[in-house]
Here is the input.
Amino acid sequence: MNGETTESRTKPARGPRYLPGDPRPAEDVARMIRVDQAGEFGATRIYAGQHDVLRRTPSASLIKHMAEQEQEHLDTFNKMLTKRRVRPTIMTPIWHVAGYAMGAGSALLGEKAAMACTVAVEEVIDEHYAKQAEKLGEDEADLKATIERFRQEELEHRDIGYAEGAEQAPGYPVLTRAVKTASKLAIWLSERV
Here is the structure.
């Protein structure tokens, strides 16, 4: 029978590792880049809001340091968007305003509240980047390495927040829960639109 064995004829064909409706690998990578660019844009806006309110406080230099790292992350993802021809999220104008409002609003509650906001955002981003890195294969080694490097810097920001008394902020559990919920919603929306 044309050299086929019974075993090779009865074995089901191995198909793709995704279900119908799941994004294809190239679409999945495009979504990652889109959401990461949006997230880093939002982070620059959060730190801009915090810095504008707290520019004359001891926290200003730390906020500036974190903002500079976020700007580097944003510049990197902006280049990836262009190089890979990935469309940015249509939510950018909303993240422009919402990010700034989150940063300024938390800073108006005080330096510790601004740091609580930072802790909450960075914990969500840590989890988000870890999931992305886990999904990426050898064919996306450069993207994976970039995400891992940025993840470590986000963890540095979280640690700065804790060291600066984030947990002493008034209403810490409520504030961080609200910021985490908003951050997760922003991720979900930015991946899709």
